[in-house]
## 1
Amino acid sequence: MIVLEMRPMPAPRPRVTKFGTYNDPRYTAYKQAVALQCRRYFKEPISGAVKMELVFQFKTPKSWSKKRQAEAIRRGYHTQKPDGDNLEKGIKDALNGIAYIDDAQVAEVNKVKVWGDRDMILIDISSLEKQKEGGDEE
């Protein structure tokens, strides 16, 4: 399990101009930070099908009352923007070439967005081939 102490950031739409296509520099910095922190967990990229489990935790806004913050954390699920698909895309893009050769290998994804007392991203990546092989041995 990889724990990243940072605010989850969704993948924005690239900006297209007559001079080319550009990503927001903040998004590029976010992907680089995720990649840098995750690099130490992988000696080499996984080949074959990959399973990814993601938890995106968002800190409750300071502008909310203590009661509202506690209620949001108790309820758990974060049902506001950004949407989970764009958050997932940011992580998948950042881990290309680090956790797996290409994000097209990600065959199974479980993700959840929750409220918490701090911003955090939890990532668990495993090979589906190893799980399948392990299941056959029983």
## 2
Amino acid sequence: MTDETTKNNIGNVTMTFTENGNLIYDIMDGEKVERMNLTYYNSDDTIVSDQPSHPQKQKTKYKIKNDKLTLEFEGTVNIFKREK
């Protein structure tokens, strides 16, 4: 995350996108980590994700610029920085 709005909106999270279509979404809460294992694919400027344990496709607009990922979902914009 790179901005206070994102931290306030979703807390301390990381997302790992794999080349084979898996999305690992970790939510850190103090010493505890909650992990969601999702699948994803991109279509033009949209990431389509799904959680196999609770199937429901969600579409999120995205753009990548200067190693920053901007996600827009339901009118809320969140910005993430790429970790190397």
## 3
Amino acid sequence: MSTFKTAELPDLTPDSRRMIDSAAARYSIGMVYLGRQVLPYALAQFQKAQELDPTDSLAQIQAGRVALRLERPSEALALVRKVIAREPRNVGALTIAGLASMRQNASAEAVTFLQQAAALEPRNEEVRQALSKALLQSPNQ
């Protein structure tokens, strides 16, 4: 598909361009790319949504998830740290931060993030599994 792509978006009218250049529209486009497993394009759309609205936590968390899947844990951690700074009880951001920390071999930091997430949502299976793994990797536990 990318070999045929000549522009980020098709030709649009000025009104259509304004509708597309919103954080919500870019997030939706990113979700379509994510659903199709076109991760670099999904990440680009989530990053564009974040540029358009720096407080868009959903876009930042999804960008973090995609960055993690693309083996870019430091980028993922940087993205979700912004969310955690605004929303310290955001389980999605804490989970991605924990997973990204594990990938960077910062297991103590991973445990801290994941324990916070587990305290907020003790039945969240993704968090529980990640915490178990982080505890096994952590030399302090």
## 4
Amino acid sequence: MTERRAVSDFDQDFDSRGTKPPWQVTGRTVLYCLLGFFGVVFAANGVLIVDALSTFGGVETDSAYQAGRRFETDVAMVKAQDARQWRVDAKVTPSSAGAVRLDIDARDATGAALRGMEAAAVFERPTDRRLDRSITIAADGSGHFHGSADVPAGQWDLVIELARRGDVLFRSKNRIIVK
């Protein structure tokens, strides 16, 4: 008489010859594959979203609507600036320990130095507003201004404004590379 014994889960994994049957796709296998696939997709999207939101600070304007409303005023200011034919030259000179010196020479259409002007300058990072550097500008005689700031090497937009009694009469924005 043959002895009967209880069949365990271990025994079910083998056929009558003692060999393991070929691998089979079960519902549990499909579930694990789907969960793994979508888990990887969601994790990658999460990393990319967090990185994009934490690094992008290059918004050009806070309100496109307000910028559009100021457009006609800006066009009139540019036309008036062109009519004055002022010549404003700026020279950026790297100095020690990452600082740069900015020298500005401002002349009118006849070549005479501009008097009674206040100057302002900003090094703007084209890709990230949070890295912008303002420069304190001091008058260095008639039509001459200078200032210095710590500006790391790289590509910058140099924005120079000349004003008289609070009215901006000259504005330029030039892309420069600080070495």
